[in-house]
Amino acid sequence: MPTVAIAGSTGSIGTQTLEVLEDAVDGYVVDSLAAGSSVAELVAQVHLVRPRVAVIGDESKLGELRRGLPPGVEARAGVAAMAETAAEADVTVNGIVGFAGLHVTLACLEAGKRLALANKESLIAAGPVVQRARSTPGAELVPVDSEHAAIHMCLRANDNRSRVHRIQLTASGGPFRGRAAAELESVTIGQALAHPTWSMGPKITIDSSTLMNKGLEVIEANELFGLPAGDAGYGITLDDVDVVVHPQSIVHSMVTFTDGATIAQLSMPTMKLPIAYALAYPDRFETPYGAIDWATVGTLEFGVADNEAFPCLGLAYQAGRTGGTAPAWLNAGNE
Fold this sequence. Notes:
Blueprint: E1 3-7, H1 12-23, E2 29-35, H2 39-49, E3 53-56, H3 62-68, E4 74-77, H4 79-86, E5 91-94, H5 102-110, E6 114-117, H6 120-125, H7 127-134, E7 140-143, H8 146-155, E8 164-171, H9 189-192, H10 202-210, H11 212-225, E9 241-245, E10 251-257, E11 262-266, H12 272-280, H13 312-322, H14 326-334
Parallel strand pairs: 1-2, 1-5, 2-3, 3-4, 5-6, 6-7, 8-9
Antiparallel strand pairs: 8-10, 10-11
Protein backbone atom coordinates (compact mmCIF):
# COMPACT_ATOMS: atom_id res chain seq x y z
CA MET A 1 0.00 0.00 0.00
CA PRO A 2 1.24 3.55 -0.73
CA THR A 3 2.78 5.37 2.22
CA VAL A 4 1.70 8.95 2.94
CA ALA A 5 3.46 11.76 4.83
CA ILE A 6 1.33 14.66 6.03
CA ALA A 7 3.26 17.86 6.69
CA GLY A 8 1.10 20.31 8.61
CA SER A 9 -1.12 17.51 9.88
CA THR A 10 -2.89 19.60 12.54
CA GLY A 11 -4.00 22.32 10.09
CA SER A 12 -7.05 22.44 7.87
CA ILE A 13 -5.53 20.49 4.96
CA GLY A 14 -3.84 17.99 7.27
CA THR A 15 -6.94 17.13 9.26
CA GLN A 16 -9.03 16.77 6.10
CA THR A 17 -6.34 14.54 4.57
CA LEU A 18 -6.67 12.18 7.53
CA GLU A 19 -10.44 12.12 7.02
CA VAL A 20 -9.97 11.33 3.31
CA LEU A 21 -7.57 8.51 4.15
CA GLU A 22 -10.17 7.01 6.48
CA ASP A 23 -12.50 6.77 3.48
CA ALA A 24 -9.94 5.16 1.17
CA VAL A 25 -11.20 1.83 -0.19
CA ASP A 26 -7.83 0.64 -1.50
CA GLY A 27 -5.92 1.64 1.61
CA TYR A 28 -2.97 3.87 2.41
CA VAL A 29 -0.43 3.75 5.21
CA VAL A 30 0.20 6.97 7.11
CA ASP A 31 3.99 6.92 7.38
CA SER A 32 4.49 10.23 9.19
CA LEU A 33 2.70 13.20 10.69
CA ALA A 34 4.36 16.58 11.17
CA ALA A 35 3.22 19.78 12.89
CA GLY A 36 4.86 23.09 13.66
CA SER A 37 4.24 23.46 17.39
CA SER A 38 0.87 21.91 18.31
CA VAL A 39 2.14 18.96 20.35
CA ALA A 40 -1.17 17.99 21.97
CA GLU A 41 -3.03 17.90 18.65
CA LEU A 42 -0.20 15.98 16.97
CA VAL A 43 -0.08 13.40 19.76
CA ALA A 44 -3.84 12.89 19.52
CA GLN A 45 -3.54 12.24 15.78
CA VAL A 46 -0.67 9.81 16.33
CA HIS A 47 -2.74 7.75 18.75
CA LEU A 48 -5.47 7.49 16.10
CA VAL A 49 -3.40 6.46 13.06
CA ARG A 50 -0.12 5.13 14.55
CA PRO A 51 2.39 6.47 11.98
CA ARG A 52 6.00 5.33 11.90
CA VAL A 53 7.28 8.84 12.72
CA ALA A 54 5.93 12.00 14.34
CA VAL A 55 7.76 15.30 13.80
CA ILE A 56 7.42 18.60 15.63
CA GLY A 57 8.96 21.66 13.99
CA ASP A 58 9.70 23.40 17.30
CA GLU A 59 12.80 21.57 18.56
CA SER A 60 12.21 22.77 22.14
CA LYS A 61 9.09 20.56 22.26
CA LEU A 62 10.77 17.27 21.33
CA GLY A 63 10.73 16.01 24.92
CA GLU A 64 7.04 16.81 25.30
CA LEU A 65 6.32 14.99 22.05
CA ARG A 66 8.28 11.89 23.11
CA ARG A 67 6.41 11.68 26.40
CA GLY A 68 3.07 11.68 24.62
CA LEU A 69 3.76 9.14 21.90
CA PRO A 70 2.68 5.49 22.07
CA PRO A 71 5.38 2.79 21.94
CA GLY A 72 6.88 2.16 18.52
CA VAL A 73 6.42 5.68 17.10
CA GLU A 74 9.66 7.55 16.51
CA ALA A 75 9.85 11.23 17.53
CA ARG A 76 11.83 13.78 15.52
CA ALA A 77 12.11 17.57 15.68
CA GLY A 78 13.18 20.52 13.59
CA VAL A 79 12.60 21.91 10.11
CA ALA A 80 15.23 19.67 8.53
CA ALA A 81 13.75 16.57 10.16
CA MET A 82 10.32 17.54 8.88
CA ALA A 83 11.62 17.74 5.31
CA GLU A 84 13.70 14.55 5.51
CA THR A 85 10.80 12.59 6.97
CA ALA A 86 8.37 13.78 4.33
CA ALA A 87 10.72 12.59 1.59
CA GLU A 88 10.66 9.05 2.97
CA ALA A 89 7.01 8.40 1.99
CA ASP A 90 5.60 7.56 -1.45
CA VAL A 91 3.31 10.61 -1.38
CA THR A 92 3.68 13.79 0.67
CA VAL A 93 0.79 16.14 1.37
CA ASN A 94 2.33 19.54 2.07
CA GLY A 95 -0.26 21.47 4.05
CA ILE A 96 2.19 23.75 5.87
CA VAL A 97 1.07 27.39 5.86
CA GLY A 98 3.26 30.00 4.16
CA PHE A 99 6.85 30.04 2.92
CA ALA A 100 7.83 27.69 5.75
CA GLY A 101 6.62 24.84 3.54
CA LEU A 102 9.47 25.25 1.03
CA HIS A 103 11.78 22.73 2.73
CA VAL A 104 9.20 19.97 2.47
CA THR A 105 8.40 20.84 -1.16
CA LEU A 106 12.04 20.64 -2.21
CA ALA A 107 12.86 17.52 -0.20
CA CYS A 108 9.95 15.58 -1.65
CA LEU A 109 10.62 16.55 -5.27
CA GLU A 110 14.39 16.09 -4.99
CA ALA A 111 13.74 12.58 -3.66
CA GLY A 112 11.77 11.81 -6.82
CA LYS A 113 8.47 11.38 -5.00
CA ARG A 114 4.91 12.63 -5.53
CA LEU A 115 4.09 15.95 -3.90
CA ALA A 116 0.44 16.79 -3.22
CA LEU A 117 0.97 20.52 -2.89
CA ALA A 118 -1.37 22.68 -0.85
CA ASN A 119 1.45 25.07 0.10
CA LYS A 120 1.31 27.47 -2.84
CA GLU A 121 3.70 29.96 -1.21
CA SER A 122 6.76 27.73 -1.65
CA LEU A 123 6.14 27.47 -5.39
CA ILE A 124 5.38 31.19 -5.74
CA ALA A 125 8.30 32.52 -3.70
CA ALA A 126 10.88 30.02 -4.93
CA GLY A 127 9.55 29.15 -8.37
CA PRO A 128 12.90 28.75 -10.19
CA VAL A 129 14.27 26.53 -7.40
CA VAL A 130 11.15 24.38 -7.30
CA GLN A 131 11.15 24.04 -11.10
CA ARG A 132 14.66 22.57 -10.95
CA ALA A 133 13.53 20.10 -8.30
CA ARG A 134 10.52 19.11 -10.45
CA SER A 135 12.96 17.88 -13.12
CA THR A 136 14.22 15.13 -10.77
CA PRO A 137 13.45 11.70 -12.27
CA GLY A 138 10.30 10.33 -10.67
CA ALA A 139 9.26 13.67 -9.15
CA GLU A 140 5.59 14.49 -9.58
CA LEU A 141 3.69 17.59 -8.44
CA VAL A 142 -0.10 17.36 -8.20
CA PRO A 143 -1.74 20.57 -6.92
CA VAL A 144 -4.21 20.45 -4.03
CA ASP A 145 -5.53 24.01 -4.41
CA SER A 146 -9.08 23.48 -5.64
CA GLU A 147 -8.55 25.79 -8.63
CA HIS A 148 -5.30 24.22 -9.78
CA ALA A 149 -6.56 20.71 -9.19
CA ALA A 150 -9.50 21.67 -11.42
CA ILE A 151 -7.14 22.94 -14.13
CA HIS A 152 -5.11 19.74 -13.81
CA MET A 153 -8.29 17.72 -14.39
CA CYS A 154 -9.37 19.84 -17.37
CA LEU A 155 -5.99 19.58 -19.05
CA ARG A 156 -6.13 15.79 -18.90
CA ALA A 157 -8.92 15.98 -21.50
CA ASN A 158 -6.52 17.45 -24.07
CA ASP A 159 -3.72 15.48 -25.77
CA ASN A 160 -2.08 18.42 -27.57
CA ARG A 161 -0.37 20.78 -25.13
CA SER A 162 0.09 23.49 -27.77
CA ARG A 163 -3.70 23.85 -28.11
CA VAL A 164 -4.24 25.37 -24.67
CA HIS A 165 -5.29 29.01 -25.16
CA ARG A 166 -6.31 30.46 -21.78
CA ILE A 167 -6.91 29.45 -18.17
CA GLN A 168 -9.77 30.90 -16.12
CA LEU A 169 -9.31 30.81 -12.34
CA THR A 170 -12.60 31.25 -10.50
CA ALA A 171 -12.85 33.34 -7.33
CA SER A 172 -15.76 33.46 -4.91
CA GLY A 173 -15.04 37.14 -4.34
CA GLY A 174 -14.68 36.51 -0.61
CA PRO A 175 -16.80 38.05 2.16
CA PHE A 176 -16.48 41.58 0.77
CA ARG A 177 -17.53 40.95 -2.83
CA GLY A 178 -19.36 43.94 -4.24
CA ARG A 179 -18.03 46.45 -1.71
CA ALA A 180 -16.28 49.61 -2.86
CA ALA A 181 -12.82 50.53 -1.62
CA ALA A 182 -14.19 53.13 0.80
CA GLU A 183 -16.46 50.53 2.41
CA LEU A 184 -13.48 48.29 3.20
CA GLU A 185 -11.81 50.82 5.49
CA SER A 186 -13.88 49.79 8.51
CA VAL A 187 -14.18 46.02 8.13
CA THR A 188 -13.17 43.77 11.03
CA ILE A 189 -10.98 40.69 11.26
CA GLY A 190 -14.05 38.67 12.20
CA GLN A 191 -15.83 39.77 9.04
CA ALA A 192 -12.77 38.94 6.94
CA LEU A 193 -12.66 35.43 8.45
CA ALA A 194 -16.32 34.75 7.60
CA HIS A 195 -15.83 33.25 4.14
CA PRO A 196 -19.17 32.70 2.39
CA THR A 197 -18.45 29.32 0.76
CA TRP A 198 -15.18 27.76 1.97
CA SER A 199 -13.97 26.49 5.33
CA MET A 200 -10.21 27.11 5.38
CA GLY A 201 -7.41 28.05 7.73
CA PRO A 202 -7.22 31.69 8.88
CA LYS A 203 -4.26 32.68 6.70
CA ILE A 204 -5.88 31.60 3.43
CA THR A 205 -9.26 32.98 4.54
CA ILE A 206 -7.78 36.44 5.14
CA ASP A 207 -5.95 36.25 1.81
CA SER A 208 -9.28 35.42 0.15
CA SER A 209 -10.91 38.50 1.66
CA THR A 210 -8.31 40.75 -0.04
CA LEU A 211 -8.13 38.65 -3.27
CA MET A 212 -4.41 38.23 -2.56
CA ASN A 213 -5.06 34.50 -2.50
CA LYS A 214 -6.34 34.69 -6.07
CA GLY A 215 -3.36 36.78 -7.09
CA LEU A 216 -0.99 34.19 -5.64
CA GLU A 217 -2.95 31.52 -7.50
CA VAL A 218 -2.44 33.37 -10.79
CA ILE A 219 1.32 33.19 -10.25
CA GLU A 220 0.99 29.57 -9.14
CA ALA A 221 -0.95 28.67 -12.28
CA ASN A 222 1.80 30.19 -14.41
CA GLU A 223 4.44 28.22 -12.49
CA LEU A 224 2.51 24.96 -12.71
CA PHE A 225 1.28 25.07 -16.29
CA GLY A 226 3.08 27.92 -18.08
CA LEU A 227 6.34 26.24 -18.99
CA PRO A 228 7.13 25.85 -22.71
CA ALA A 229 4.69 23.48 -24.38
CA GLY A 230 5.99 19.94 -24.05
CA ASP A 231 6.29 17.32 -21.36
CA ALA A 232 6.20 19.83 -18.50
CA GLY A 233 4.13 22.78 -19.65
CA TYR A 234 1.43 24.20 -21.89
CA GLY A 235 3.10 27.28 -23.33
CA ILE A 236 0.85 29.84 -21.63
CA THR A 237 2.00 33.09 -20.01
CA LEU A 238 0.81 34.94 -16.94
CA ASP A 239 -1.38 37.13 -19.17
CA ASP A 240 -3.17 34.01 -20.42
CA VAL A 241 -4.53 33.44 -16.89
CA ASP A 242 -7.82 35.23 -16.16
CA VAL A 243 -9.69 35.66 -12.87
CA VAL A 244 -13.45 35.18 -13.03
CA VAL A 245 -15.63 35.97 -10.00
CA HIS A 246 -18.02 33.09 -9.35
CA PRO A 247 -19.71 33.45 -5.93
CA GLN A 248 -21.26 29.96 -5.83
CA SER A 249 -17.80 28.28 -5.90
CA ILE A 250 -19.12 25.34 -7.92
CA VAL A 251 -17.07 25.91 -11.08
CA HIS A 252 -13.54 25.56 -9.70
CA SER A 253 -11.67 26.64 -12.82
CA MET A 254 -11.79 26.39 -16.60
CA VAL A 255 -9.46 25.90 -19.55
CA THR A 256 -10.17 27.34 -23.01
CA PHE A 257 -8.55 25.74 -26.05
CA THR A 258 -7.51 27.25 -29.39
CA ASP A 259 -10.74 26.09 -31.10
CA GLY A 260 -12.85 28.06 -28.60
CA ALA A 261 -13.97 25.08 -26.51
CA THR A 262 -13.91 25.58 -22.73
CA ILE A 263 -13.75 22.68 -20.29
CA ALA A 264 -14.67 23.29 -16.65
CA GLN A 265 -14.52 21.20 -13.47
CA LEU A 266 -17.61 21.49 -11.24
CA SER A 267 -18.32 20.18 -7.76
CA MET A 268 -19.67 21.47 -4.48
CA PRO A 269 -17.01 23.32 -2.46
CA THR A 270 -14.92 20.85 -0.45
CA MET A 271 -11.16 20.48 -0.16
CA LYS A 272 -11.54 16.72 0.21
CA LEU A 273 -12.00 16.30 -3.53
CA PRO A 274 -8.63 17.85 -4.58
CA ILE A 275 -6.90 16.07 -1.67
CA ALA A 276 -8.29 12.71 -2.80
CA TYR A 277 -7.44 13.52 -6.42
CA ALA A 278 -3.79 14.22 -5.58
CA LEU A 279 -3.49 11.09 -3.43
CA ALA A 280 -5.00 8.73 -6.00
CA TYR A 281 -3.73 10.30 -9.25
CA PRO A 282 -3.94 9.05 -12.00
CA ASP A 283 -6.75 6.99 -10.43
CA ARG A 284 -9.72 8.42 -8.52
CA PHE A 285 -11.35 7.74 -5.16
CA GLU A 286 -14.70 5.98 -5.00
CA THR A 287 -16.05 8.43 -2.39
CA PRO A 288 -18.14 11.12 -4.20
CA TYR A 289 -16.72 14.24 -2.57
CA GLY A 290 -18.48 17.36 -3.78
CA ALA A 291 -21.14 15.54 -5.83
CA ILE A 292 -23.72 17.99 -7.19
CA ASP A 293 -27.47 17.65 -6.87
CA TRP A 294 -28.35 19.27 -10.20
CA ALA A 295 -31.99 19.60 -9.24
CA THR A 296 -31.10 22.08 -6.50
CA VAL A 297 -27.90 23.79 -7.66
CA GLY A 298 -29.72 26.86 -9.01
CA THR A 299 -28.10 29.71 -10.93
CA LEU A 300 -24.35 29.99 -11.55
CA GLU A 301 -23.11 33.59 -11.78
CA PHE A 302 -19.89 34.97 -13.28
CA GLY A 303 -18.35 38.42 -13.25
CA VAL A 304 -15.12 40.40 -13.24
CA ALA A 305 -12.92 41.26 -10.26
CA ASP A 306 -12.87 44.84 -8.94
CA ASN A 307 -9.19 45.75 -9.14
CA GLU A 308 -9.77 49.16 -7.54
CA ALA A 309 -11.37 47.75 -4.38
CA PHE A 310 -8.99 44.77 -4.28
CA PRO A 311 -5.59 46.03 -5.48
CA CYS A 312 -3.75 42.92 -4.27
CA LEU A 313 -4.82 41.11 -7.43
CA GLY A 314 -3.13 43.70 -9.64
CA LEU A 315 -0.01 43.63 -7.47
CA ALA A 316 0.24 39.88 -8.01
CA TYR A 317 0.04 40.26 -11.78
CA GLN A 318 2.77 42.92 -11.63
CA ALA A 319 5.01 40.66 -9.53
CA GLY A 320 4.41 37.72 -11.83
CA ARG A 321 5.25 39.75 -14.93
CA THR A 322 8.42 41.09 -13.29
CA GLY A 323 9.48 37.53 -12.46
CA GLY A 324 12.70 36.60 -10.72
CA THR A 325 12.42 37.27 -7.01
CA ALA A 326 9.45 39.65 -7.34
CA PRO A 327 6.87 36.97 -6.40
CA ALA A 328 8.98 36.31 -3.27
CA TRP A 329 8.77 40.02 -2.33
CA LEU A 330 5.04 39.93 -2.80
CA ASN A 331 4.60 36.78 -0.72
CA ALA A 332 6.87 38.07 2.06
CA GLY A 333 5.00 41.36 2.26
CA ASN A 334 1.70 39.52 2.40
CA GLU A 335 2.82 37.10 5.11
